[in-house]
């Protein structure tokens, strides 16, 4: 495969990650607005957010099989269109003030995001492998950069008192246009070879092979590494704005700006982080980033003013930057099993990313959402303890893949 094709695929993958981040942050930055419009407590909003988690948890374990059958480009489109459909339902529900209809829309949004996430990570891993250098953090920097822009847009629209419904309708149009245009530049269908070995055991199917990844100890340990990192990121996405508003007396637009600070820090470290991984290796970088996340989270919670909390948000974002992309690269080390393993690790990560923050909302009803964030530290420590599982697999797996003609 010639280099221009790989470069085009890299740019397309980066763009798809960026749009994914923009869509998610456009929702997350305005959670305080949605909470107010629907007149919900933190615990009730947490319960509503669980519907996103439910949709994704259903979609993610199936995503490896879907990618194997449809390819990454088609699966990204299916995910984008499904999340757009969910966005239309949510926009309509907010205009009507309906909590139940909002829950239905968020469920479809979660299904779409789950399919979208696995397919873009499988594509990113294949591009990274063909380029021969670490670029997965840069793809996730695209997600974070899109989220930063989405957070700023959310803050601006909140300050201008633009309705969330109008905001979501505009996003749906953007996503549909992007899904029609961008995935055509993805690499040509490498996923069938990734999902199923060239000579599978007699009677084996893609579904069986996908489920067998759940029995691999390394894959599950990598999933635990990603779990802590994903909870660290997801909790900030869902609650840092509200914690700033409720705990520090900031305005809704001020809360959205704090979220933007977190995302900007995460984006910067993801963009440059590949160099550190190539220089020092995955495991040392994981130790450093998870440690920074723990320090930053603690500072944000105990800070007496917005400025120190902002410094905590910078450290928190820097620490949250690398865990998820390194976990995806580790899951995809063996190209022949990439789709199945990425699906497993993504499922574990997204359970934490989407289901963990709503549970913090319930805790927040008792101790305030700002102090509830300290519970994330337990998951971060667990990720630090399991970080060695992300050590790259021996080169033989890569060589076997190349020898097979992929």
UniProtKB/TrEMBL annotation:
Residues 218-406 form the Major facilitator superfamily (MFS) profile domain. Gene3D superfamilies: MFS general substrate transporter like domains (1.20.1250.20). Its main location: membrane. SUPFAM superfamilies: MFS general substrate transporter. The chain crosses the membrane at residues 6-27, 47-68, 88-118, 139-160, 166-187, 219-236, 256-273, 285-307, 313-332, 344-363, 369-390. It is a multi-pass membrane protein. One of its GO terms (molecular function) is transmembrane transporter activity. PANTHER family: BYPASS OF STOP CODON PROTEIN 6, INNER MEMBRANE PROTEIN YBJJ. This is MFS transporter. It comes from Arthrobacter livingstonensis. The lineage of its organism: Bacteria, Bacillati, Actinomycetota, Actinomycetes, Micrococcales.
């Amino acid at each position: 495969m010639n280099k221009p094709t790989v470069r085009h695929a890299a740019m397309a993958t980066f763009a798809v990650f960026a749009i994914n981040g923009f869509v998610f942050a456009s929702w997350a930055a305005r959670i305080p607005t949605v909470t107010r419009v629907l007149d919900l407590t933190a615990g009730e909003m947490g319960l509503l957010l669980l519907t996103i988690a439910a949709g994704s948890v259903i979609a993610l374990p199936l995503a490896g099989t879907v990618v194997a059958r449809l390819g990454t480009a088609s699966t990204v489109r299916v995910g984008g269109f499904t999340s757009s459909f969910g966005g239309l339902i949510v926009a309509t529900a907010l205009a009507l003030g309906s909590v139940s209809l909002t829950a239905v829309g968020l469920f479809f949004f979660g299904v779409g995001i789950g399919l979208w996430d696995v397919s873009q990570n499988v594509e990113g891993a294949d591009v990274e492998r063909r380029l021969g250098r670490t670029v997965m953090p840069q793809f996730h920097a695209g997600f974070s950069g899109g989220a930063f822009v989405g957070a700023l847009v959310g803050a601006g629209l909140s300050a201008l008192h633009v309705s969330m419904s109008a905001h979501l309708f505009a996003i749906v149009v953007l996503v549909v246009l992007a899904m029609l245009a961008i995935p055509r530049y993805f690499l040509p269908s490498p996923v069938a070879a990734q999902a199923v070995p060239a000579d599978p055991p007699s009677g084996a199917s893609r579904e069986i092979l996908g489920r067998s990844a759940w029995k691999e100890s390394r894959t599950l340990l990598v999933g635990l590494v990603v779990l802590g990192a994903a909870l660290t990121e997801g909790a900030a996405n869902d609650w840092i704005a509200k914690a700033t508003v409720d705990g520090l007396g900031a305005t809704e637009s001020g809360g959205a700006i704090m979220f933007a600070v977190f995302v900007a820090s995460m984006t910067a470290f993801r963009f440059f982080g590949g160099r550190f991984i190539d220089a020092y290796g995955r495991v040392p970088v994981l130790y450093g980033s998870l440690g920074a996340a723990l320090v930053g989270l603690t500072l944000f919670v105990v800070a007496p003013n917005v400025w120190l909390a902002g410094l905590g948000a910078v450290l928190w974002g820097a620490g949250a930057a690398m865990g998820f992309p390194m976990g995806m690269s580790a899951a995809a080390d063996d190209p022949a099993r990439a789709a199945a393993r990425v699906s497993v690790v993504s499922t574990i990560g997204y359970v934490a990313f989407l289901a963990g923050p709503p549970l913090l909302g319930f805790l927040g009803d008792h101790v305030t959402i700002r102090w509830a964030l300290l519970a994330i530290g337990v998951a971060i420590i667990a990720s630090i303890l399991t970080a060695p599982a992300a050590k790259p697999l021996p080169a033989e797996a890569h060589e076997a893949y190349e020898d097979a003609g992929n």
